[in-house]
Design a protein that fits this description.
Oligomer: single chain
Order of helices and strands: HHHHHHHH
Distance between the termini: 51 Å
Number of strands: 0
Shape: elongated
Length: 153
């Protein structure tokens, strides 16, 4: 079974290389990796995500798969939040990284509302850098709107 599994992983990786924004390829990979009778190398799966996000940092299919892999690879949500920092600092126009960040912040800081509010203040400063760098880009502005929404509730 492990040989068949490895062949299928290789096939799906080839399909991802050829069609990186195809739903079916990523869904197949997501179905394939946690099969009971196989042993998935989650570190390699994270490396695949890193490679794909280097080629196209806004590939939301890959970001979705990365969330799935990170949950299986024992990557903490704080580590994933740090990963979004790297991606955003590399390119403030990376809407997918901003979106990932908006998903992670409430989870990372859910236990202490006062700490969450302090973090939100720092996030406003962080997103200002995006405005100064790329004022016409919508990614930072969408994130800014999300931050304001957090303060209203």
């Amino acid at each position: 079974l492990q040989v068949i599994y490895k062949n299928e992983l290789h096939f799906s990786e080839s399909a991802i290389a050829a069609h990186p924004k195809s739903y079916w390829v990523w869904f197949h990979r997501k179905w394939l990796t946690p099969q009971k009778h196989t042993k998935c190398d989650w570190v390699s799966e994270l490396a695949l995500c890193d490679k794909c996000l280097q080629m196209d940092e806004r590939n939301f299919h890959c970001w979705c798969y990365r969330r799935f892999v990170a949950s299986h690879a024992n990557v903490t949500q704080k580590q994933e939040l740090d990963f979004t920092n790297v991606k955003i600092e590399h390119n403030f126009s990376n809407y997918s990284a901003w979106h990932q960040r908006s998903n992670l912040l409430p989870k990372v800081y859910s236990k202490d509302i006062s700490e969450f509010k302090e973090v939100l203040e720092k996030e406003f400063e962080f997103v200002k850098q995006a405005f100064y760098t790329e004022p016409e880009d919508q990614s930072g502005w969408f994130y800014h709107r999300w931050l304001i929404g957090c303060l209203l509730y």
